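Run log // design_07
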């Protein structure tokens, strides 16, 4: 089977000065990870590779470069789902780690597969993860401005780059999806995003989906799971995404999705103006810029 890969770095209303840098990062990561898939890398390993590189890139709102919550602290969430095993794992509101997606991966074979703040902190200690400060100066300045301007709850719809994610299909026909985020920004302490839930990240043996955008909108739609179920029930991946985007638009939702199906289809959709995503179809890489 020809491997497939698609990754994203957020959705929003208008591009900003980081746009060019973000597109370059997406293409660089797609090229590096797809090379591993071609060489026989498993879908899960490819998704972990893509997500860690996206988390390490301060262009995006995950890992290094995550946004700050209302109290000025960074709390991140991430999840991983292996489609063949239909196994979901994740961490919610974890702090002082570099790559939350690796914590989600460590929970794949545990009895307790989704951990929140205190449990996730204990997991980080068990894994021996070093303390890491993901704060960047630009995110600090954003928070200071938000604090002064009383940011709207819909802030994420106005930010061009946020949540990151990846979906891969490997040579054995296995699908994996991963998603990681720093949250909406300036949110209430304890707020849970969609990224560590099956609404924001879901896969089975037929299809995998990663979402980005306003978490509450994604949760309200049960978006990732809804799309995967539609594909499982017989719709093509593109049809399932298109129908879900139409429903989202009718309810004024702000989000974007990327996906891969076991038949090799790659698709994406958005209700926002911009979706930062790039993919490799087995022949060459493309992006969703101006698509």
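design_07 sequence
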């Amino acid at each position: 089977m020809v491997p497939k890969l698609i990754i994203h770095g957020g959705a929003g209303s208008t591009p900003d000065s980081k746009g060019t840098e973000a597109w370059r990062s997406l293409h660089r990561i797609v090229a590096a990870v797809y090379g591993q898939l071609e060489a026989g890398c498993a879908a899960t390993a490819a998704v972990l590779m893509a997500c860690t590189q996206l988390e390490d890139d301060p262009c995006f709102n995950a890992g290094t470069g995550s946004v700050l919550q209302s109290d000025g602290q960074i709390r991140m969430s991430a999840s991983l789902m292996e489609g063949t095993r239909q196994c979901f794992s994740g961490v919610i509101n974890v702090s002082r780690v570099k790559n939350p997606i690796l914590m989600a991966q460590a929970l794949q074979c545990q009895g307790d597969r989704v951990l929140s703040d205190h449990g996730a902190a204990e997991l980080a200690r068990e894994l021996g993860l070093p303390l890491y400060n993901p704060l960047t100066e630009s995110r600090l300045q954003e928070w200071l401005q938000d604090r002064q301007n009383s940011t709207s709850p819909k802030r994420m719809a106005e930010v061009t780059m946020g949540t990151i994610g990846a979906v891969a299909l490997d040579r054995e026909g296995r699908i994996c999806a991963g998603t990681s985020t720093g949250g909406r920004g300036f949110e209430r302490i304890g707020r849970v995003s969609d990224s560590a839930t099956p609404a924001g990240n879901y896969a089975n043996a037929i299809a995998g989906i990663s979402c980005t955008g306003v978490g509450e909108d994604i949760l309200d739609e049960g978006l990732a799971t809804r799309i995967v179920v539609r594909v499982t029930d017989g719709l093509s991946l593109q049809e399932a995404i298109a129908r879900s985007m139409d429903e989202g638009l009718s309810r004024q939702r702000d989000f974007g999705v990327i996906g891969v199906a076991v038949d090799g289809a790659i698709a994406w959709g958005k209700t926002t103006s911009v979706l930062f995503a790039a993919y490799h179809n087995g022949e060459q890489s493309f992006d969703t810029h101006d698509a």
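The chain has one domain: 4-287.
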